[in-house]
Amino acid sequence: MHTVFRISEIRKIDKNRPLYEVDLKLTSDDDQQLRRLTDRIREESSSSTGWYRMDHPSLATSYNNIGAMYKNMGDYSKALEFYEKAHQIYEKALPPNHPNLAISYGNIGQVYNNLGDYSKALEFYEKSHKIYEKALPPNHPSLATSYNNIGQVYNNMGDYAKALEFYEKAH
């Protein structure tokens, strides 16, 4: 654990130079003043009015929104940059089967699909789909969208039999 000291006394030991002697006292685990301070810091840092941590899911949502705008403008490299920033935050802040992680994988897959990198698109769409399979009931619309996305990639690759298979699952 960390160690916290209180400054009990400061004495100047040289009149010609700025040299001081500092007496420190070790705080104990039951120091009420220190406990109140740490409780207050914890309260302020976790409230919605305080500063957000740099890995807060709300920041990831902002990155996703920026990524979506770049994607809509056709700047896929910038879109990918922001989608990946969002995804890194989600990976740190959310459990591994959270639907927002699936959405994040899907966003990245969509950019790769738009870039024509179908193997990468499939990789990310399949990661998204695995999360949806675990997190959602089998008749959930997001699961159908996931099947449709995978079918779209196979369609773009010219593998129409595989595309049809996934389109039928989506249906």
From TrEMBL:
It comes from the Eukaryota. GO terms for cellular component: kinesin complex; microtubule. SMART domains: TPR. SUPFAM superfamilies: TPR-like. Gene3D superfamilies: Tetratricopeptide repeat domain. Its main location: cytoplasm. The keyword Hydrolase does not apply. It is found in: Cytoplasm, Cytoskeleton. PROSITE patterns: TPR, TPR_REGION. Keywords: Cytoplasm, Cytoskeleton, Microtubule, Motor protein, Repeat, TPR repeat. TPR repeats lie at residues 60-93, 102-135, 144-171. Belongs to the kinesin light chain family. Kinesin is a microtubule-associated force-producing protein that play a role in organelle transport. Oligomeric complex composed of two heavy chains and two light chains. This is Kinesin light chain. It comes from Rotaria sordida.
